[in-house]
Amino acid sequence: MKLGLMGFGGVLPLAHRMIVEQQKWLDESQFTNLLGICQLLPGGNIINMSVAIGMQFQGIKGAISSVLGLIFAPTVIVLMIYQVYEHFQYLTVVRHLIQGLAAAAAGLLFATGFKMLRPILKSKLTLLTITLTFIFMLLFKPPLALTLLILLTINFLILGVKKS
C-alpha cells in the first residue's frame, strides 16, 4: 500500500527502490528480467509485477493482496483529486504545475532506466539491443509487443549464430 500511496507520477522508480534496494526481494538482474516479462503482458507493468512478486511469496492470496494494496488507496485519492482538478484545470498555475509534475516523472523514469542499465551492460549485443530499441520506438512508434518480438528474435538469431 505504501508504494501505491507514494507512487504518483512514476511508480517504477519507487518500486525499484523498494523491491531491490530496501526490501531486497529481488536483485537488479531479477527486477530487470521480471520487468521485461511484465512489459510483454497486457496491463500495467507495475501491476503485473506486483502479481508476480505476491505470487512468489504467498501464492494466489499474495498476488491478490499485492494488487489490492497497490491500487486501492491511489484509486480513492485520484477520485478525490479529480473532483478538485475539474474545477481548477483552466488556471494557468494548475497547468504549469501539471507540466512540472510530468517533467519530474520523466526524470524519475530516466534515473531508474539508468540504474537498470548498469547490471545488464555486459556485452556489445546488449548495448546494440538498447540502441536499436530506442531508435525503433522513436522513429516508427510501433506497438511495444512488436518491438520486443522483433528485437528478441534478432538477439536470439545473433546468440544462436554466436554459439554455433
TrEMBL record:
<comment type="similarity">
    <text>Belongs to the chromate ion transporter (CHR) (TC 2.A.51) family.</text>
</comment>
<feature type="transmembrane region" description="Helical">
    <location>
        <begin position="144"/>
        <end position="161"/>
    </location>
</feature>
<feature type="transmembrane region" description="Helical">
    <location>
        <begin position="121"/>
        <end position="138"/>
    </location>
</feature>
<keyword id="KW-0812">Transmembrane</keyword>
<dbReference type="Pfam" id="PF02417">
    <property type="entry name" value="Chromate_transp"/>
</dbReference>
<feature type="transmembrane region" description="Helical">
    <location>
        <begin position="67"/>
        <end position="85"/>
    </location>
</feature>
<dbReference type="GO" id="GO:0015109">
    <property type="term" value="F:chromate transmembrane transporter activity"/>
</dbReference>
<dbReference type="InterPro" id="IPR052518">
    <property type="entry name" value="CHR_Transporter"/>
</dbReference>
<protein>
    <recommendedName>
        <fullName>Chromate transporter</fullName>
    </recommendedName>
</protein>
<keyword id="KW-1133">Transmembrane helix</keyword>
<dbReference type="GO" id="GO:0005886">
    <property type="term" value="C:plasma membrane"/>
</dbReference>
<feature type="transmembrane region" description="Helical">
    <location>
        <begin position="33"/>
        <end position="55"/>
    </location>
</feature>
<keyword id="KW-0472">Membrane</keyword>
<feature type="transmembrane region" description="Helical">
    <location>
        <begin position="97"/>
        <end position="114"/>
    </location>
</feature>
<dbReference type="InterPro" id="IPR003370">
    <property type="entry name" value="Chromate_transpt"/>
</dbReference>
<keyword id="KW-1003">Cell membrane</keyword>
